UniProtKB/TrEMBL annotation:
PROSITE patterns associated with the record: TAT
Protein name: Sulfite oxidase
Region (Disordered), start-end ranges: 30-98
Co-factor requirement: Mo-molybdopterin
One Pfam family, short name: Oxidored_molyb
Low complexity biased stretches: 42-68
Keyword Oxidoreductase attributed: yes
Segments forming domain Oxidoreductase molybdopterin-binding: 117-280
Protein species of origin: Haloarchaeobius litoreus
SUPFAM superfamilies in alphabetical order: E set domains, Oxidoreductase molybdopterin-binding domain
Biological classification of the source: Archaea, Methanobacteriati, Methanobacteriota, Stenosarchaea group, Halobacteria
Amino acid sequence: MGEQSDAEPSKRDRYLERRRVLKAVGAVAGSSLLAGCGGNQTAGTETPTGTEPTAATEPPTETATETQQTEEPEQSLEERYPGLRILSPEPENAEAAERETYTTLITPLEEFYIRNHYPTPDIQESEWTVSLTGMFDEDVELSMEELKREFPTETVFHVMQCSGNGRAYFDPQVGGNQWTFGAVGNAEWTGTPVSAILERYGADTSDGMWVSFMGGEAPEGEDIFTRSIPMGKVMDDCILAYEMNGAPIAGDHGFPVRLVVPGWYGNNNVKWVNRMHVMDMMVFGDEWETEDQRLYTHWQQYSYRIIPVQDEAAEQYQTIDTYDTYEQMQNPDQIRNAYIFDQLVKSMIGFPGEDSTVTRRADGTVEVIGVAWAGDNAVETVEVSDDGGETWNEAEFFRPDLGPFSWRLFRYVWSPEPGDYTLVSRATDAMDRTQPATVSSPDQNLRGIQNDQFPWNQGGYSNTAYMSHAVDVTVE
Ligand SMILES: Nc1nc2c(c(=O)[nH]1)N[C@H]1C(S)=C(S)[C@@H](COP(=O)(O)O)O[C@H]1N2
Ligand SMILES: [Mo]
């Protein structure tokens, strides 16, 4: 297919072939959700000590107690994740290489994108702790064992998507990793609700409070990956996850524990969490940065903001009371540069793939398949167009509904004449928000979605434009 596969033809071909075989015998996610969860493990991480990946049908409490990260040096990123296109080997950044990833309900580990600012750390679970600081008499420090055993366990299906997904389609291009369509995956996440921990230690959980989650992997002197999450969201459904698709979270995805903020962009889902800090504001100002360093504030206040071309930098706020990303974007008089929080409605075609040639079925049809999601509200409808958005036809949902934070599979039974087509999909959410057609040019100075255009922005964030995600298809 495209240029990506040319770089790694034989390995990917072998992988896809293996995947097809496994699929045929029902061992990967494509054919059965639950069977898929256990089967996904194999090639991704040569599984750590002894513990076999546990099927999702077994209670989560049965897994992972003894699991530790072992040295796994020999295998390169490419070898471990044959379904990914590598953007940078270190820090590890890689996205799904093929559209086919977007024809399944649960994304296998081999195809699940990785986005790191610093190299994946090598962590011993038995030595890892998560501390709770802020408004407490005494700081709290929890071992992984305590985190798993002394609190309730919850599971959520959540679409993890990098806010830079689709950045490569910005014109003019912006700096950073050139993610195309593949920096998104859907997984089952299991762990401890943060609310249970905050309640146990008597935190002030009223509205207006924030919890700042910090990653433990930043090398000495680098900005600590910190994200401040509003208390309402934390109490609603955030979890400290230690399992992904029924197995211990892989090292690259946050082992031994990461934050999952259901429905919110990947950048909020802090990996390798070692500290949670409760206070009445986001990380902001002198207290959280030194003269020459944005030690805690960088990834909250400077990065992951919608900054149009005419702004020098993002305006920083101590606190805000509108969290919804779309609402922030549409009301720049209140928050000048939206913070990238919950995901905007988006969809993507998984089959047919990019620049592919397809044969019609005996009845003259082709089944167009894809995924659609809408952050922390539900996706309502998906439409498919075979003429680049001139005319639209409603698709139908199929496969189980795994809740509002999961994506939904859609299909559209298409009856094309032989010829060349541009296929696009467009999703609409429960708030009646829909995907725009294109990305604006910078000189339009947009801050929100207007006139069917997504605002070009300096960080290249959150591109949901459907024409950016079109597939060109030849029907034989
Ligand atoms: N500690 C830490 N957490 C992190 C990051 C990071 O670099 N360090 N990257 C974030 C970003 S930008 C994304 S998109 C997601 C990616 O999660 P994944 O690699 O499991 O797909 O993790 C987030 N959490
Ligand atoms: Mo990201």
